[in-house]
């Protein structure tokens, strides 16, 4: 029997992570990947993420039993159009990983009407503000919800096939309609990105008047704005694709802010206390504490602004096989120090690194 043939289209953070999980869970399948630029293709072959790479999408698509599109949302719809013009295998199963679902599910139903094509929308609800195949990981989606959306082009058995293919992601699969998906992710993901970017923008505006402001941004500001470093390509597409729900959330949030504004101006301290207390209790009960979304682990080290300091710190880790996936120096302080940001794949590695830095230096380390 010929090997089952899987095409991962788009070798970025998500495509790369899916490729790793599929290849690791099904070493007997033939996994191919399309990517327009060469560097991710070379990386995927060197790291044995996949068996075959190409910049010719059509060549790979016509051989595939399953195709997963991992592009910005609008581009995935263009690729569906392109697929509809090819002689695909009969009953090919197509899915995607985009952050919105209504637009692509509706487009797929229209594009493949009457054709022997199966389509299930997909959205692994984990990721990062980082992009690219280099940041990909087999366990990126471990314990995270992976939403699958039915379409007129899918049946129950197709879901089992896709879940089996993706089993090694160790994600928690859940079926939601495309409408339900978009309404809920607007609340928990899309609108919060708008808030994060607005907080950064507001701070920058204010710093034009009082330049020292940005130096006073501490841990709380950092936690609330990490996602403002996400890809503008990806997030502008998401906002365009789920605009109604996001606008609705902005309206609701404006009302909430105005209500708090009234309490503050009227100095209603008891009500303000109750407002914070309610939020504290609600957040402590939210499932985010189970850690599903924490997939990268940062350490921030306050280091002297001298050459060689990065090598010095990395030298402390000699003999320990730590999974550093990103190194960045942030010169945010006007004084002598810079902030060295190291990102690890696992919480264990983050803890080991913190311990080693504390053993070898007197640098301040923050998580
Ligand atoms: N980054 C995240 O945290 C998450 C992202 N998603 C969704 O996954 C999808 C992929 O996102 P990422 O992997 O994060 O992005 P990425 O930036 O890491 O990868 C995007 C891929 O699209 C390709 N691409 C972009 N424009 C192209 C073009 N014009 N022609 C051909 N290829 C093109 C790039 O080469 C790359 O392979 C998006 O729809 C995003 O909404 C879903 C869950 C989490
Ligand atoms: O960076 C983060 O914490 C995220 O929120 C990642 C993310 C980005 C886009 C999605 O559709 C799902 C998850």
Helix/strand layout:
Layout: E1 5-9, H1 13-25, E2 30-34, H2 38-46, E3 52-54, H3 57-61, E4 66-69, H4 73-84, E5 92-96, H5 102-111, E6 117-124, E7 145-149, H6 156-165, E8 172-175, H7 178-209, H8 219-225, H9 232-241, H10 243-265, H11 269-285, E9 297-304, H12 309-315, E10 324-330, E11 337-344, H13 347-360, E12 364-366
The structure holds 1,4-dihydronicotinamide adenine dinucleotide and 3-(4-hydroxy-phenyl)pyruvic acid.
GO molecular function, one term: prephenate dehydrogenase (NAD+) activity
Catalytic activity: prephenate + NAD(+) = 3-(4-hydroxyphenyl)pyruvate + CO2 + NADH
InterPro entries: 6-PGluconate_DH-like_C_sf (IPR008927), ACT-like_dom_sf (IPR045865), ACT_dom (IPR002912), NAD(P)-bd_dom_sf (IPR036291), PDH_C (IPR046825), PDH_N (IPR046826), Preph/Arog_dehydrog (IPR050812), Prephen_DH (IPR003099)
